[in-house]
Every structure is written in C-alpha cells, then in structure tokens.
Amino acid sequence: SPESPDVEAEASEDEPSPVKAKELTPEELEAKRLRDEAEAAAERLQQAKKAEEQRKKREQQRKEEEKRAAAQRKLEKKEREAAQKAEAKERRKIEQEQQKAEEQRQKQLQLREEQRLANLQENAERQRLHEEQLVARAFEADRLARVAILEAYEEGILDAAIRSTLLQEGSQSKSALHYALRKIAATLPLGSAGKTDGADSAHKEVEEFVVDLALACLSTDGCAGAESHDARARLASAIAVAVRPPTSLPELSKEAKACVKKQRLRVRIAALTLLRSLAAAEPIASAPKPRALAANAPAPKDIVADVELVVAEEGAIFESLTSYNEVGPIREGATLVAAGSAAEVDGYWMVPVKPQGAVELRVLRLAAAPPNEKASRSSGKQTSNGGDAAEPELGGRLQDFVRISAEGPSYLERGADDFRQVCFCGFDPAAALEAEASAPLNVNVAVKDSTSEQPISSSKGGKKAAKAKEPKAEEDLDALLQEFGMTAQSPGKSSKKKAKK
C-alpha cells in the first residue's frame, strides 16, 4: 500500500542502532596495510609463478612442436633425398643404357664402315692383282712373240741380220744409226786384264750399260716409221727383249723367263760384238769434254731449251722445279741439256733438264753459246778417218742415247723410264687391259694351273715326265742382275735441297 514505506521507516527508527566498530590505531592500520600488501605481493608472486609455469609449459610445448617439426622436415628431406637419389640412379641407369646402346650402334657402324673399307680395299687389291695378271699375261705373250722372232734366226744368222737388216751395212751412205753406234762404241772401256775385282765389276757395268744403249738405238731406229709386219721393224722390236729390264716391268713366268734369258744373252753378245768391231774398224775420236765458257753461273735469260750445260760442282737432280725430292746425284764435269728456261723457285734459280728433273743454276755453266748465236755445225764436217763424207746430224732419240752414253751407268738411277719404254717397244699396258676387257669371257677358261692339265700316270715313266715338267726354282733376281752387270741399289731418301745455302 502507499503507506508501507513510511511504516517501515518508523519501524527502523524504533530499532536500536548497532554497536560502532572499534577504531584502529595507526599502528594497526599500518600493520593491516602491510598485511594487505604482503598478501597482495604473495598473490602476485603466486600468479607470477603460475604465469611462469604456464610460459615454460608453453615454451616446452613449442620446443617439442619444433622438434617434431624438425624431425618431420628431416624425415621429409631424407625421403626427398632418397627419392632424388633413386631418381638420379634411375636416370643414370637409363643414360648408361642409352650411352651403351649408342656406343654399340657406333661400334656397329664403325665395324660396318671398316668392313666396307676393307671390302673396297680388298676389291681394289683384287682388281689391281687381276689387272697385273692380265697385263703380265699380255706382256708375257708379247715377249714370247718377240722371242719366237729371235728363235727363227740361227746362231750364225743373228749377227748378220742385225748388221744387214737394222744397221743396213753395205749401203753407199752411212746412216745416223751407224754414226750413233760408233759414238756409243767409243765409250766402251778398254780390256780389264790385270784389274782388281772392283775395277772389273765397274768395267762390266759400263760395258753392259753401253750394250743397253746400243740395243736401244737399234730397236728405236728400226721401229721408227716402219710397218709392224716389216722385217726390219719385227727384228727391231724383237731385240728390245735384250735390254736389261727395270724392276717395274710385269713379272714373267719361269718358263718365259728362261726363254727370254736365252735370247737376251744371244742378242747382247751379238750387240757387244758389233760394238767392238765398230770401235776397232771405224774408230771415232771421242768428243772433247765440254768446257765452261765462264767461271760464274750464266744469267737466267741465257738458259733456253736445248742449251748444253756443264756441271761445275757436284750437286743433285730434283724431281721438278718446285720439288725438294732428289732423284740422283750429278758429278762435276757432267753435261746436261736444258729442257726449258730457268725459273726462280723459293728464291733459287732452277733449270729444267732432259729427260726429266731440275738442277740449280748456280752449279751449272754454259758449254756452248745460246742457239741464236750458234753457227751451223752441219757444214764442212769430216769423218774421223779423214774421208770426205759428212757426219750425219743426229736427232731425236738417237741424239739422247749418245748423250746418255757420255754420262755413264749413273744415268740408270734416274733414267729407268727411258729403258722401260725401250723394253716395252710398243707394248701398251692400258691397251692390253682394254683388249682383255673386250675379249669373250670364255677366254679365261684356258688359263689353268699347269699341274691340273697334266694327266696322272702310275708308271715310272709318267712320274719322271711329270717331274721333268715341273717348273724350276725361281731365279735369284740379284744373280740375274749381277749376270748382266747390273747391281741392285736401294732408293735414296728424299731430302731438302742440301746444296742451297
């Protein structure tokens, strides 16, 4: 009701008031304050300890979590490294397999290439041997055909045939061949009686060299301008087999060698007899050795083709104007013929000489005036025996062979090609190959081993006959060369131009 508050207020005023609290002294208040502060400090300390414990706990938890995370990372890293190693190992394995497969492929390719090259070389070598056999067979047939021509001449007829058919003795005028043989015969050495073995060997070598040149003159002159069926040309081509062959000629069979050797001895003896008779019956004065016109080397402009030159000091002949490979030596006093004008090469003047090669200009001297200053030598020449007949003018190969005779056997070191052409005497290996290539295939059927064509006999007579038909042992090449006065010489090593300083 609205009166209740007033009633309550009156009732409260009627109640007795409580007892007032005892007032504290300052000391008690200070003590109470200190207690309250101590309690508050203790409570703060307790809270601080609790907070520190919680912090340490959280720190411990954080460290454990970091440790677990580090262990996890380490494990993951280890797993990654293991995976990477496994992947790298697998990759290396694949690469090694690929490399091995590539090496195997390259090796197979190399083996195929080596096999291909070996097959090419084998085919080329087989082709070369086949061509050599074809050339040798054709060459042997050519030699035997020439030997058959010589065999038709009996012992006493061959000398007369050479004199009458080739040399044409008995004609009114002496031919250039006759004069060339007289010039060559003049270089024959004197008798070798009382000489030592070394001097006798040198004597025989010079003698055989002179015989080779005489046969070359007879063969070359007899075949020049004549028909192949002409008697003179046939005999001239036949005696070419008597020229000592260079080592580069095709190989002959043992039977063919024996036949050629027999006729070669006959022809060489006949040629030597002819030369000695010419030297005795119609001696010719040896041409005086050319002398140098000046003490110094000639000017390059004075060197033209066919100029005669004298070697003033020992030197070497080189393969060509620009080559440093030596073909052979040249001795002091030897005569050479220029093949063209002088040329300067690497600061040195070189002169091309006949038949091939080149010589330094500094070791040469002019032996005659240049051709534009020469007087004609063909007029007014007398024979050496005082006759009125003029000496014939030599030219071509005859002039070359006469010039070579003055150089001596040393010319063989660089003139093998000249003697090879004389030995061939019209035989062409290239033409022989073409003829064999164009021949029918069945022609090779006839080429069989001689042992397979002989019938087998059980009788003693058959065995003896078969044994007699067996080929003889191969002839010793050194013995054959020595028999004809030719010594085997090893090729000299090529060197730089030693004489140039």
Provide a descriptive summary of the structure in words.
The chain is mainly alpha-helical and 501 residues long. Helix content is 55%, strand content 6%. The chain is built from 13 helices and eight strands. The protein has a three-stranded antiparallel sheet with strand order 4-1-8. The chain starts with a helix and ends in an 18-residue tail after the last helix.
Rg from C-alpha positions? 58 Å
Q: What is the topology, as strand order, of the major beta sheet?
A: 4-1-8
Q: Can you write the helix and strand succession as a string?
A: HHHHHHHEEEEEEEEHHHHHH
Helix/strand class: mainly alpha
The biggest beta sheet reads: 3 strands, antiparallel
The helix fraction, in percent, is 40-55%
- Per DSSP, the total helix count is 13
- C-alpha end-to-end distance: 159 Å
Low-pLDDT segments: 192-196, 369-389, 441-477, 479-501
**Number of strand segments:** 8
Large-scale geometry = elongated
Strand content: 5-15%
Q: Name the average pLDDT.
A: 74
